[in-house]
């Protein structure tokens, strides 16, 4: 069975600082990996996804993530955080033969001035 | 175009009552998913519809939960005899086709509070 762990429940960064949100997954085969963002009162929005190929994927809003098979990780990064990035971030894994996603518990990002 | 919509946005009910939650998927999307998000938890998969195929109900937590979808349109999630542990945000998502590789578009959710 697939599972996802997001070790950090809350993260606080200063505006303009770099950001890295951690995600570790457990899955026997090559996983499909996703990062979603949930802003207050909004539905989840897909930031980026990894299926195969280049292990560094670019997403929307200046985010990127790197798939590291040896570490079973798919960490999300952004070079310079903006106040509008404050939100809940979810990592998810899916089977390439399935359809439902398994989500981590999320990381809440607070951005300080 | 219009995204996934859900109604009501908030629902407060008394323990033991039945509730119905509605989801309008994006037009043309054949796959529809229901997830539950409890406070401080990730999303839990509940049920999945693909076209006119039999739904995958493997994630429903009990027989008090049921869902219907007519064709490729609106879906209704029904919770009978609600319990306090049913309090959560219920999220609906749709995708163009089935399969993890198809992006799931999420609605804003229905926040259910059971008193």
Structure description:
The complex is a heterodimer of chains A (113) and B (115). By secondary structure, chain A is mainly β. Chain A is 0% helix and 52% strand. Chain A contains no helices and 12 strands. Chain A has strands at residues 3-5, 10-14, 19-21, 24-26, 32-38, 44-50, 56-58, 64-68, 73-78, 87-94, 101-103, 107-112. Chain A is globular and about 45 Å long. The termini of chain A are far apart. The mean pLDDT of chain A is 91. By secondary structure, chain B is mostly beta strands. Chain B has strands at residues 5-7, 10-13, 19-24, 31-37, 43-50, 65-69, 75-79, 88-95, 105-106, 110-114. In chain B, a hairpin with a 5-residue loop joins β6 (65-69) and β7. The mean pLDDT of chain B is 91. Chain B has no helices and 10 strands. In chain B, the strands form 2 sheets. In chain B, strands 2, 4, 5, 8, 9 and 10 form a 6-stranded mixed sheet that branches. A 4-stranded antiparallel sheet of chain B has the order 1-3-7-6, with no helix packed on it. The radius of gyration of chain B is 13 Å and the shape is globular. The interface between A and B is medium-sized, with 27 and 30 residues.
């Amino acid at each position: 069975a697939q599972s996802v762990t997001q070790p950090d429940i809350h993260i606080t960064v200063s505006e303009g600082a770099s950001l890295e949100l951690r995600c570790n997954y457990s899955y026997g085969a090559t996983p499909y990996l996703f990062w979603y963002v949930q802003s207050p009162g909004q539905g989840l929005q897909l930031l980026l996804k990894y299926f195969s190929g280049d292990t560094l994927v670019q997403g929307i809003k200046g985010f990127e993530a790197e798939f590291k098979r040896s570490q079973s990780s798919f960490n999300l990064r952004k070079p310079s955080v903006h106040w509008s990035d404050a939100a809940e971030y979810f990592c998810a894994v899916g089977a390439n033969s399935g359809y439902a996603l398994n989500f981590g518990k999320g990381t809440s990002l607070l951005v300080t001035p | 175009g219009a995204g996934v919509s859900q109604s009501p946005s908030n629902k407060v009910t008394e323990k033991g009552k039945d509730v119905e939650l509605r989801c309008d998927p994006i037009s043309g999307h054949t796959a529809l998913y229901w997830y539950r998000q409890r406070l401080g938890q990730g999303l839990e998969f509940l049920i999945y519809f693909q076209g006119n195929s039999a739904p995958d109900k493997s994630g429903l937590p009990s027989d008090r939960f049921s869902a219907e979808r007519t064709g490729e349109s609106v879906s209704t999630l029904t919770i009978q005899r609600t319990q306090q542990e049913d309090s959560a945000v219920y999220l609906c998502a749709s995708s163009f086709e089935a399969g993890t590789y198809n992006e799931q578009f999420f609605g804003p959710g229905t926040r259910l509070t059971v008193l």
